[in-house]
Design a protein that fits this description.
Layout: H1 18-34, E1 38-40, E2 42-44, E3 47-49, E4 56-59, E5 67-71, H2 76-94, H3 98-114, H4 116-127, H5 131-154, E6 159-161, E7 169-177, E8 180-184, H6 192-203, E9 207-211, H7 217-230, E10 237-239, H8 244-252, E11 259-263, H9 266-276, E12 284-287, E13 292-296, H10 302-314, E14 324-330, H11 334-346, H12 366-382, E15 384-387, E16 406-409, E17 425-431, H13 434-441, E18 446-447, E19 449-453, H14 457-466, E20 471-474, E21 494-495, E22 514-522
Helix pairs in contact: 1-4, 3-5, 3-7, 4-5, 5-6, 10-11
Length: 526
């Protein structure tokens, strides 16, 4: 069986022969670990670029002493070179037919499926993803590319015949690319979000300067290799590496950048948004943070709610923009729900997530450990930590960034219900009415995902109408607030969680990388 022929794994389903899956994953881990420790260039206009700048050392959160690779980083001159290469390639790429742009992108999706085990193994050791989470990331990447290609086909390239005001005119409405996009990616879904953002921009006719997160340069390099091998022309997709606070700012501030697509923190995203359009408004597509709530009402299936909350709170160690980080549970069932949630969480296997059957791995870096420890200390002062709250340092875990999944009961006025942590800490508060649950859920600057568990159809309907979030779930056992998939759930942030109100995975994403032009031709008689 080939990798591409193995049935698809998503974040909420794994209808595959797991014995075959694990055997193929083990083989991929051997290949990936054997390739560790090399030195890698950037790629600009199809050429390998090395610099004398300080190199980025990529280590694993599983074992911080394990060097995965060293990567040449960009200085201002390399950023300028990359932007100029993208601008030089923009005209030819934009003037290709829709079919000519789609062909290499479809091939890229095929290559991802062919290489998905090596890609997943890379993400597992580089990010600390479990095997199934890592494979879901790879599978989603391919599906995102195919989905965005299909959007262009379904819209006939976004060319539309318009009404005539006079018999002698012809009016056509077209969407055309902006030009050059800076694509700045996060660490947590280093392939899916990078492939999604970049492929949407590319299929729309833009060219790209791509910067992966500083924690995931190896996965970023693998995406570059996929696009190159698929036939994306030199200059249309350029890879530069470096620290986000230094090099990332220099990239989007470059005067040759026409648009920015960014996934990351609200703080950084809003700074980009506020400064990027100093001269005139330019597209700035942001998917930012979340402080996502799950509501558990007194009519809920408690076992379902506990399982759904546990999976969304502690999958990828809560390092998802969509992760459940707070729960509002009806006081009549609070004790029973917490007991069930704690019991399920205690069964999680914690350790090296590249190993079979490990669900819960390390957080990404030492800064994430510090955020976690500060939250736990605050929770102990304000409420009660009912599970976890410790740094894990026994045996091999001492070499990585390991903490235990933490659950705390807190008063509703605690700032831990509103501060994004991106760490495995779950805050639980008691509510007495549905109205209170909605009010507390909406009492945050974020609005990405939300979930409810209720046996009342009326409450579920009101939840969808009144919750201030873009991605909403009701009674979802496989994840209270997580699991969006291309073409099934648009991933759309409201309020401080996004900039456009139209998200990735959804039907309106690609058109945001294009601007409208009206074309009127007057046909005069000869």
């Amino acid at each position: 069986m080939t990798a591409a022929s193995l049935p698809k794994i998503t974040y909420t389903s794994a209808n595959v022969d797991l014995e075959q899956f694990h055997a193929m994953f083990d083989e991929a881990l051997v290949r990936v670990r054997g390739a560790s420790g090399k030195e890698y260039p950037m790629y600009i206009d199809g050429k390998a670029i090395t610099t004398t700048a300080e190199q980025l050392v990529d280590t694993s959160p599983i074992d911080a002493s394990r060097v995965l690779g060293t990567f040449h980083t960009a200085r201002p001159e390399q950023i300028d070179l990359a932007v100029k290469a993208a601008r030089a390639a923009a005209r030819e790429w934009a003037h290709r037919s829709v079919e000519e742009r789609i062909a290499p992108l479809r091939r890229a999706a095929e290559l991802i499926r062919e290489r998905k085990f090596d890609l997943a193994a890379t993400m597992s050791v580089e990010v600390g993803k479990s095997r199934l989470e890592a494979m879901g990331d790879a599978e989603e990447s391919a599906d995102l590319i195919d989905y965005y290609c299909q959007q262009m086909l379904d819209a006939r390239g976004f060319v539309r015949e318009m009404a005539k005001m006079t018999p002698i005119e012809r009016n056509i409405d077209v969407l055309r690319p902006f030009g050059v996009f800076a694509c700045i990616a996060p660490f947590n879904f280093p392939l899916a979000l990078s492939a999604g953002m970049s492929s949407a921009a590319l299929v729309a006719g833009n060219t790209i300067v791509y910067k992966p997160a500083e924690e995931t340069p190896w996965t970023g390099l693998r995406l570059y290799e996929i696009y190159r091998d698929a036939g994306i022309p030199a200059g249309a997709f350029n890879l530069i590496q470096g620290d986000g606070h230094v090099m990332g700012d220099a990239l989007w501030r470059h005067p040759g950048i026409d648009g920015v697509v960014f996934t990351g923190s609200k703080e950084v995203g809003m700074r980009i948004f506020s400064e990027f359009s100093a001269k005139f408004a330019r597209p700035c597509l942001l998917e930012l943070g979340g402080k996502n709530a799950a509501i558990v009402m007194d009519t809920a299936d408690i076992d379902m709610a506990a399982e759904g909350v546990m999976k969304s709170a502690f999958g990828l160690q809560n390092q998802k923009c969509s992760a459940t980080s707070r729960v509002y549970v009806h006081k009549f069932i609070a004790n029973e729900f917490i007991e069930a949630l704690v019991a399920k969480t205690e069964k999680l296997v914690i350790g090296d997530p590249s190993e079979r059957d490990v669900y819960f791995g390390p957080v990404i870096n030492a800064q994430a450990v510090e955020r976690y420890e500060r939250a736990v200390a605050q929770a102990r002062a304000e409420g009660k930590v009912v599970l976890g709250g410790t740094r894990l340092t026994r045996g091999a875990q001492a070499k990585g960034h390991y903490v235990s999944p933490a659950i705390a009961t807190l008063p509703l006025d605690s700032t831990l219900f509103r501060t994004e942590l991106f760490a495995p800490f779950l805050a639980i508060g008691e509510i007495t009415t549905f109205d209170e649950a909605i009010a507390e859920s909406n009492r945050t600057e974020y609005g990405l995902t939300a979930g409810i568990y209720s046996g009342s159809e009326e409450e579920v309907a009101r939840f969808f109408d009144e919750i201030e979030a873009g991605v909403c779930y009701a009674n979802k056992r496989t994840g209270a607030t997580t699991g969006a998939w291309p073409g099934a759930q648009a991933f759309t942030g409201w309020k401080g969680s996004g900039s456009s109100g139209k998200g990735g995975c959804g039907p309106y994403y690609v058109m945001q990388f294009m601007r409208e032009q009206s074309r009127t031709t007057i046909h005069t008689s000869v």
